[in-house]
Amino acid sequence: MKKLFAVATLALAVAGCGIFGDTKPITKDVPATCKTIDPQTKVVTVNAICAAAFEAIDQANVLLRSVDRMVLGKLKAGIWTKAQAQVYYDQTGKLGAKVDEAIAIFSRGDYVSAQAQAAATQQLLLILEKEIAAAAKSAAIDVLELLII
Amino acid sequence: MSSVLAGAAGKILVSEILNYAFASGETLLERKAEIDAARALEAQGMTPEQVMATLNDQRKAAHQDLGDALK
User: Fold this and answer.
1) Is the pTM of this model over 0.90?
2) For residue A51, which residues of chain B lie inside 8 Å, CB to CB?
3) Do B18 and A141 touch (CB under 8 A)?
């Protein structure tokens, strides 16, 4: 039993290390708005800041969804009460509004501000994600340790 | 005596592994699944603009699901 848990948790940890190294963008192609085609030479130029802003918005959207789903999972599993989950729901709501703002800024063509807004939101989300993992961990470890010991 | 110490050390080690796994592994695996699903959208033929719109809708739907569960 102990070995099984050790192997399972090590597998999770190793998988985690692999994810840290994953820096590929969400989309391989860049949006048309970030490309300029020279009519004479047909050479395509990519606006790097535009593409970075686009990627940051995609990443923020994915991260936000992941956090909301994680909170929903803990709530459904009975790890958290509604009051505990509500705290995170309120925070992801506010961060979602920031992503919407970043999209609006991007649509206006202000890619520098859009990228800054999305990147800042992403950082706040990563902090929130760590907070959630730490809070869920303390509850789950108590249960698992009882099984192992 | 040494077996008692080894047992205690083992429990601490298992606890530390669990700590790490739950703090990072579980969270990252959930996120990895979300990123893989997002990347699959382009592979299905969506343009980057359509991917962004879909991810935005999915994010809002997930927030709505959580909100509904909290009612």
Assistant:
1) no
2) none
3) yes
